[in-house]
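request received
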Amino acid sequence: MSVKKYVGENITDVRSVNKVTGATQYAADINLPGMLYAVMIRSEYAHAVVKDIDLSEALKVEGVVAIVTYKDFPELHFGTYVHDQVAFTEHPKYVGDPIGAAAAETEEAAEKAASLVRIKYEVLPHILNPEEAFKSKEIIIHPNMHTYKGYAGFFNFKKGTNIPNHLKVRKGDVEKGFAEADYVVESRITIPPIYHGNIETHACVCKYDPDGRLTVQSTTQGPFLLREMLSTAIGLPMNRITVVHTAVGGGFGGKISGNIEIRAAAIAQKCEYRPVKMVLSRREEWETVYTRQALVGYYKTGVSKDGKIIARKVTLYWDAGAYADYEVSVARSAGYMSAGPYDIPNIWIDSYAIYTNKLVATAYRGFGCSETTFCYEQDMDIIADKFGLDPVKFRLKNALERGMENATGQRLRSCALKDCINLVNEKAGRETKKSENDGIKRGRGIAVMHKFTVHTVPTADIVKLNEDGTITLETSAVDIGQGSNTVMAQILADVLGIGIDKITVVPINTDYSGYGWQTAASSKTFFNGNSTIRAGLDLRRKILHYGSMVLHIPESDLATRDGKIYSLSDPDKSIPFSAVSLGVFNEEGGQYGGPVIGYGVFTVEDGSFLDTETGQGRKPSAFWMFAAMIAEVEVNTETGNIRVVRFVSANDVGKAINPKMVQGQINGGAIQGLGSALFEEVLINREGKVMNANMHDYKMPTIGDCPDEMISIPVETQPHPDGPFGAKGVGEPAMACPAAAIANAVADALGVRIYSMPLTPEKILDALEKKSPKEVR
Amino acid sequence: MKRDIKCTINGRQRTFYADPCASVLDVLRDVLHLMGTKEGCGTGDCGACTIIWNGKAVNSCLLLANRMENAEIWTIEGLMKDGELHPIQQAFIEAGATQCGFCNPGFIMRIKAMLEENPDPTDEEITQGLVGNICRCTGYKAIRDAVKIAVKKQRR
Ligand code: FES
Ligand code: FES
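response:
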């Protein structure tokens, strides 16, 4: 008997009808009776101490209800990994650092009041360059860093410096490796900060009840992390805080940490138990909230004559901006994968998170991957060229595969990197059509990558059987558009044996949903997929048990299908799920069972930490993802303009639960990567102010920038033994290869190397003018 | 100064009291509570606020409310008919052009105006028509596919 299966099918987004009709509620769409509007009072200087603050004019504005500053609010330290922030600061550390907030009956009144707050500063010297901040003894941005609380493994700070984290990897003998090498290549990369570019800006609504309970509705990727941060920052126990996430209009890492919610909640305390809404304008979002970190990195790679990489040394300076937020995690994880997906016996990595007086850097789709790939994959081509090797064959020769150990000593249980490389190579075809017309040069480049995920973030999911036999899944995964609601519904439908239309997935409410850290690290399919399976199995076990009591058939002869419990030996004997939803009765009318709930948790039981001295650990990541991409470009040698004409991508996903959604991730990541490669750059002036915080001066890709052809292949040759149906993840790897592949394609077209993102026309023309045919830095 | 403004919105006559110098986007959202039209930038650069105004797709964040007087306006809320999705909406779902969904209303309105003028656009015309709308999630491929699916559906 064939049963409809959902896993592996292109099921359409279960929430899409609301999205295309404009009915989806995002945080800015929430309007509540009596609602007030709050606006932040922000520092005008990159580094200062507030000497005096005068609210008298501001308080006169009609409609103002409350103004709070650091003076009115306890100095409770909070943070994502390191508790280095306070809600409002007396010691601003970047232009835009919140000093206070104003709330009023209208947004205009709140804005006016905020603008009338007079602040006297003592301006301190500031520092914007991470390499300078690394060495600085004079300017220490967080003098009390050593007193902060932080997560072990993420807060390996150096007292009296601007360095909140230092990740070390020491494997083999790197100097011996270089001594034995026949060729050594060295390079330096610089990557500017870029924006997440979520079209929906940050927004939230906070409300206190007279009994002291706080409710926060927010566009967040991590309701539980937000609750934890609120609890620390506001000093409320978690049971008094409810966080509900609204629809999220794009996250990409930028909505992972608590930020405006903490300030809005702080001022809401003074707002007569009325709801307080805070919505950032595009300009405020981009001037003051988050970026992807800037990076300065150094690579040195030693290769033997036969084309084996034998040593690699990497030093990375990640520019955290004013607070550590996610950057200590970036330095750690991006650090340990920075040697690339290659089998290298001798590795030395130093990866530092560094405070500067810039706006805060946070997690960003695949943090560290696209940046370091941009460097090591260009080096790979230089080496291949040096030895006259084919770039594809050279990568295949060094690529990691299943069973091998990577840089941190983790043995890979699923690795389809070679399949990815072979597939893109095949699909791209052999010949590159060289066009020399009108100064247009064509080139092709390949790039490959690997990406870690997490291991210390348990998930819990709850499945409820409703009285009519339908199912409600209280997922702990936040669907930020990647499709986790649909993927979880597909998985659950197959586990339970019920039509997907009978399942509703509801968003997280921290009061009753199971714990789920956040949507991050391409982890949701794997982690929540597993806990959803377990919750489904728990529910199924119960309904089979109760079904057996009703049908008087042993459980071993029962199965589920189409929302029914039926006998395997006599399929005509069946009852619908609804028959057991409230329990079953014995002959005398005693009730047994009762409202049926399935609960499932997932943890990585065999995970391990990293050794702080060597960076070695058996399993710091639940799984590893791999990808390869070939890009073809046309470069106009007159104007320096680059046009990407073709992307061919293959991503090692283990199993595509929903192939179309996987392709959606690959395509979206490719174009986001294209933007960072060609034109995206946050420009910050010497005073630390952002110069292009708007969508015409900060250009993001439009449909006009897309290649004519995009081929995206989910690779399923290496299902992960621990993955749900073998699945791993895809969201972040999708963005890792484009910049490197484009840079290699440009080098192929022009014979010049550019190690600084983005590849602007000026850099191209400049490099061409210098006419050093290779390795233009 | 606020005054009465009269226009047709989604096929219905409406009179409302609003500041003629406010943006149409703010009036739609704050006065008429039509929250489907989104703000991504407020400066005419992202297309999230696209509506159809007198037959043309416009960025409602740049249009002043006095231009609503006697105008015929369509927003995303007006597209469903008798409980049925508009073919462009259906096409978005089928093509997988909805990820976070925030850009969708703007794109859908832009595409509606585009197809009314040119029911069978070429690839280049699609690019030209949609270059003012930004989507950060999909990489545009699914959106282009959705336009093609919608063209086929509307031809039927
Ligand atoms: S909000 Fe109107 S164009 Fe962006
Ligand atoms: S679907 Fe998210 S911006 Fe387009």
